[in-house]
Amino acid sequence: MGRFEGKVAVVTGAARGIGFAVATRFAEEGARVAVLDLDEANAVDAASRLPDSGVTSDPSSQQGGAHLGIGCDVSKTDQVQSAVARVVGELGGLHILVNNAGITRDNLLFKMTDDDWDLVIGVHLRGAFLMSREAQQHFVAQKAGKIVNLSSVSAFGNRGQANYATAKMGIQGFTRTLAIELGPFGVNVNAIAPGFIASEMTDATAARVGLSVEDFRAAAAERNPVRRVGFPEDIAATAAFLCSDEAGYITGQTLVVDGGAKLVS
Ligand code: NAP
């Protein structure tokens, strides 16, 4: 019996990378999972590749299977409202929300455009706010729920990422505040601050600084005590723990998952 048998989880930005690994982990442990991502075809494709939780699907669902893929820009109120309504209608409830969708638009401050700022703040902060506001109605009504927000070690400051660091530190304040407001209703709210995780996001950074993916990852591995980079599965395992019953006494926390890199930098 998996830890998430009978649960419905929504993971945003889950068509690839960390989000897909988180969605996979929840599905492996018995949850029915809604993959939300910008592109509906990518979201549906990712949902179709998740392990089957063995739950009979809702016959009214267009997609069949135990999981659901939905195109949704998390920074748009109407899209968030209709996506959450579809999840509850087609998967039969909502118990877990992982706010993972993210983008980078790196630039030194003097070159950062209004759009670079607004897009990053919009996806990370407004996105987490809209998704959480929509989900909490269901959590509060059933007096149970779990929210995990993706922060980053960049929250502590990172050259070229004034927009992203601000959003990721904002996520930590948002997490603590939701923990205070929703705790009395049986809802745990925590954040994960990953260090370097091998994904398309960090591969794109390698290209931007003119390094091969291999050299960029090797340099990151060299900088931390465990001498390896992180993988999406490291974050998936952390998210699964924070959303499990065993973590019921943990709320409002940001767990740094970086192989100890912050200890030595
Ligand atoms: P990724 O590979 O770039 O995946 C991000 C996903 O989010 C993509 O599928 C992307 O869709 C989707 N997305 C972007 N904007 C969206 C929106 N407005 N609405 C819905 N979905 C949207 O990134 P990742 O490395 O897996 O990172 C996942 C999360 O972890 C992010 O919040 C990131 O900031 C955080 N994080 C990552 C690292 C790392 O080292 N990788 C470290 C610390 C924190 P498209 O492909 O269509 O753009």
From TrEMBL:
Spans annotated as Disordered: 49-68
Polar residues bias (residue ranges): 54-64
UniProt record similarity statement: Belongs to the short-chain dehydrogenases/reductases (SDR) family.
SUPFAM superfamilies, sorted: NAD(P)-binding Rossmann-fold domains
Gene3D superfamilies: NAD(P)-binding Rossmann-like Domain
Protein name: 3-oxoacyl-ACP reductase FabG
InterPro entries to which the protein is assigned, alphabetical: KR_dom, NAD(P)-bd_dom_sf, Sc_DH/Rdtase_CS, SDR_fam
Residue span(s) of domain Ketoreductase: 7-195
